[in-house]
From TrEMBL:
Listed PANTHER family: LIPASE, LIPASE DOMAIN-CONTAINING PROTEIN-RELATED
Assigned protein family: Belongs to the AB hydrolase superfamily. Lipase family.
Domain Lipase positions: 100-317
Molecular function via GO: lipase activity; serine hydrolase activity
Keyword Secreted: yes
Gene Ontology terms: cellular component: extracellular space
The keyword Nucleotide-binding is assigned to this record: no
Pfam families for the chain: Lipase (PF00151)
Keywords on record: Secreted, Signal
Localization terms from the record: Secreted
Name listed for the protein in its UniProt record: Lipase domain-containing protein
Biological processes, Gene Ontology terms: lipid catabolic process
Organism of derivation: Ceutorhynchus assimilis (cabbage seed weevil)
Lineage: Eukaryota, Metazoa, Ecdysozoa, Arthropoda, Hexapoda
First-listed, main subcellular location of the protein, grouped into a coarse class: secreted
Length: 351
């Protein structure tokens, strides 16, 4: 497993930058959590308590089980629509034919590391789509793999998971006659790359849109993942929201349009709890997208001529809506200001 040591080197770089960029030192975090090594990331769980993710594998990794490639059993699908707001399990591809209405647009959601199809990011995105669109909604849950606390395992599994996801998309297109233009894939973190790998499996036409929500950076920029990254060729329109740029997420543009709320990097506004700066900022991308589905007044982004202007927050070009309403002819890099108070997690707290 050549890649393990390479990831370690990479992670040292990430936290090296974290020490310069965040205003907090790693030492301060390690005082709060004395067991933390430099290869550990803390994620808030459902109760906002820290759970540990390891950026490398060690001899204890096997306690958590290696990735077994039982994709068929490990990846689960659920269908939602306004007629089925509580969801129905899709045990087999043929079940799609019982529920999918090919006259409607189709929204496909997936999650990242240490998350799942019934966890916050997927649930909020799904509820947002149900609120905003009369659509077929498919949630792909690969938590049996992505829940592994050793990051390299789910990271290296993303191509296989994406290919499997793609067979479901092909079933919709080839067997049910769905127009691939009407398919919109949305994925957070590792799930952004999984969505790209799924989109490129569709051969009979092209998926209409893929939204990458802070696509995962560690490992992907080193070329060790044979499928590369989510990119512009994976769909007719690829839009990216960057919120932990250069740390857990990409800073490099990956889409036709790349939006950088508050400049794109951590800490995002309100992500000030020391141990969660990165994870909180990384999650801000899906919160902004989900909020865009609930909010009737769109967040606005302004076009930047260059990264230099973006970093200086000095952008004054064309203005566009952020999130679901970003139109498919938008191109370039954009700066946006979205405060924590602007976020909306459901339709009840309307602005
Ligand atoms: C892991 O196991 C190998 C072989 O059992 C051993 O040589 C190595 O020192 C171990 N590494 C750590 C960090 O414990
Ligand atoms: C499918 O969706 C179309 C457009 O929303 C609607 O007119 C039609 O009644 C739906 N078909 C079924 C079987 O629900
Ligand atoms: C809606 O969101 C607010 C906070 O944004 C929360 O307090 C409330 O419980 C949520 N309501 C539902 C139905 O989820």
């Amino acid at each position: 497993m050549m890649f393990i040591s390479e990831i370690l080197i990479y992670i040292a770089v990430v936290f090296g930058c974290a020490q310069r960029c965040n205003g907090y030192t790693r030492n301060e975090i390690e005082k709060t959590y004395p067991d933390l090594g430099p290869e550990i990331v803390l994620f808030p769980d459902e109760n906002n308590s820290p759970i540990i993710g390891y950026m490398k594998m060690d001899n204890n990794s096997r306690l958590f089980g290696f990735y077994e490639k039982n994709i068929e059993e490990e990846v689960k699908f659920e269908y939602f629509s306004r007629d089925f707001p509580n969801g129905v399990p899709i045990e087999h591809k043929t079940d799609l034919g019982k529920y999918v209405n090919i006259s409607k647009p189709t929204k496909c959601i997936t999650h990242g590391w240490m998350s799942g199809g019934r966890m916050d990011s997927s649930v909020r995105l799904r509820d947002g789509f149900l609120y905003r669109h009369d659509a077929n909604i498919l949630v792909m849950d690969w938590s049996a793999i992505s829940g592994n606390p050793f990051y390299p395992i789910p990271m290296m599994a993303t191509p296989d998971v994406g290919r499997h996801y793609g067979t479901y998309l092909n079933y919709l297109v080839d067997e049910l006659g769905l127009n691939p233009d009407g398919i919109h894939l949305v994925g957070h973190s590792l799930g952004a790359h999984v969505s790209g790998f799924a989109g490129r499996e569709v051969k009979n036409g092209k998926v209409g849109r893929i939204t990458g929500l802070d696509p995962a950076l560690p490992g992907f920029d080193m070329g060790i993942n044979p499928s590369g990254t989510l990119n512009q060729n994976d769909a007719i329109f690829v839009d990216i929201i960057h919120t932990c740029a250069g740390f857990l997420g990409y800073k490099t543009p990956l889409g036709h349009v790349d939006i950088y709320p508050n400049g794109g990097g951590p800490p995002q506004p309100g992500c000030n709890v020391l141990e969660f700066i990165e994870a909180c900022s990384h999650g801000r991308s899906w919160k902004i997208f989900a909020s865009s589905l609930f909010n009737n007044k769109p967040y606005i982004a302004t076009k930047c001529p260059s990264f230099d202007d973006l970093d200086k927050k000095k952008c004054s070009g064309k203005q566009i809506p952020v999130g679901d309403a970003t139109s498919s002819d938008t191109r370039g890099i954009y700066y946006s200001q979205v405060s924590e108070a602007d976020l909306m997690y459901n339709a009840t707290n309307k602005n």
